[in-house]
Structures are given as C-alpha cells and as structure tokens.
C-alpha cells in the first residue's frame, strides 16, 4: 500500500530543479547581486508544508548540487542549507500560522542565517568579497516570498502533493 501518490515526489523534485536552474540563469550585471536564493526559498516552503517528506537530507542533497553547479567549495551550500533547514523544521508549525508579512520577515531571518553561514565558510577559506552585496539576496528573497509561497501552494494543491 502506498501512502503517497507518485506525482508528489516529482513535483517537489521538479520545483527544486527549477530553483537550481534559476540559480545559474544568467542575469544582467546590474540585477545579478539581487538574485534571490531560489533553492533556499523552495526548501523553506517544502519543509514548512511537508516536513515529513522534505527534510535536512533533502537540503543537504540540494546544497551539494548547488555547490557543483556554482563551482563553490563542495559542502558549503550543503552545510548552510542543512543548518537553515534544521531551524525551519524545528519551528515549522509556528511559521505556518503566521500571516504572510510575518512569514516574509521570518524568511528574511532564515535567509540571513543561510547567508551568514556562507560568509563564515568563505571567511575560513579566505574568499571574502563584496560583503555589502551579500545581503541583497536576503532582501530579494523576503520580497519574493509571498509569490513563491502562493505559487508552490497552488502546485501542491493542484497535484495533491501530501
């Protein structure tokens, strides 16, 4: 007996693959510093919505794929996403009942934690660069959160992902 439709898995993984593709999508130089952390935003949604399906292991795999795609230190994004996912999984019941604007502020804090972990790893490895622009994706992610949340919720309901 199956407890989950087969389509549920592909919707989650397809949304994560789209997030990875958006991460490497070329942008003009003027907009590139404001590129949101797509993978982190999608993971935050899925962990809040389905913590029994999407968890720290999913975040770790997504982070390793992100490391390979961006050519960064192997494990850097995996570590940052795993730590962020632990925080989301531990408080997903509280975050889900927040109004959208409060969720956006919480997502900003979560993305700030993610970015801080990346900065710490970069600092240890001696790769510090443009610290003032490192916080632009956090702001962009906070502003995009309501649309991402509503889009992924509509997909989850349309395909019966549970």
From TrEMBL:
<keyword id="KW-0472">Membrane</keyword>
<protein>
    <recommendedName>
        <fullName>Rod shape-determining protein MreD</fullName>
    </recommendedName>
</protein>
<feature type="transmembrane region" description="Helical">
    <location>
        <begin position="73"/>
        <end position="95"/>
    </location>
</feature>
<keyword id="KW-0133">Cell shape</keyword>
<comment type="similarity">
    <text>Belongs to the MreD family.</text>
</comment>
<feature type="transmembrane region" description="Helical">
    <location>
        <begin position="107"/>
        <end position="129"/>
    </location>
</feature>
<keyword id="KW-1133">Transmembrane helix</keyword>
<feature type="transmembrane region" description="Helical">
    <location>
        <begin position="135"/>
        <end position="155"/>
    </location>
</feature>
<dbReference type="InterPro" id="IPR007227">
    <property type="entry name" value="Cell_shape_determining_MreD"/>
</dbReference>
<feature type="transmembrane region" description="Helical">
    <location>
        <begin position="40"/>
        <end position="61"/>
    </location>
</feature>
<keyword id="KW-1003">Cell membrane</keyword>
<keyword id="KW-0997">Cell inner membrane</keyword>
<comment type="function">
    <text>Involved in formation of the rod shape of the cell. May also contribute to regulation of formation of penicillin-binding proteins.</text>
</comment>
<dbReference type="Pfam" id="PF04093">
    <property type="entry name" value="MreD"/>
</dbReference>
<keyword id="KW-0812">Transmembrane</keyword>
<feature type="transmembrane region" description="Helical">
    <location>
        <begin position="6"/>
        <end position="28"/>
    </location>
</feature>
<dbReference type="GO" id="GO:0008360">
    <property type="term" value="P:regulation of cell shape"/>
</dbReference>
<dbReference type="InterPro" id="IPR026034">
    <property type="entry name" value="MreD_proteobac"/>
</dbReference>
<dbReference type="GO" id="GO:0005886">
    <property type="term" value="C:plasma membrane"/>
</dbReference>
């Amino acid at each position: 007996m199956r407890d989950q439709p087969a389509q549920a898995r592909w919707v989650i993984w397809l949304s994560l693959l789209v997030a990875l593709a958006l991460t490497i999508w070329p942008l003009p130089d003027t907009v590139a510093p404001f590129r949101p952390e797509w993978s982190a935003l999608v993971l935050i949604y899925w962990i809040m919505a389905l913590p029994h399906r999407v968890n720290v292991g999913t975040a770790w795999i997504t982070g390793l794929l992100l490391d390979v795609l961006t050519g960064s230190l192997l494990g850097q994004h995996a570590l940052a996403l795993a730590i962020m996912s632990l925080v989301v999984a531990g408080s997903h019941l509280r975050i889900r009942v927040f109004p959208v604007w409060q969720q956006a502020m919480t997502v900003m804090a979560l993305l700030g934690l993610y970015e801080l972990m990346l900065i710490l790893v970069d600092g240890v490895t001696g790769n510090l660069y443009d610290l003032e622009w490192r916080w632009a994706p956090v702001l962009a992610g906070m502003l995009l959160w309501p649309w991402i949340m509503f889009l992924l919720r509509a997909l989850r309901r349309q395909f019966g992902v549970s």
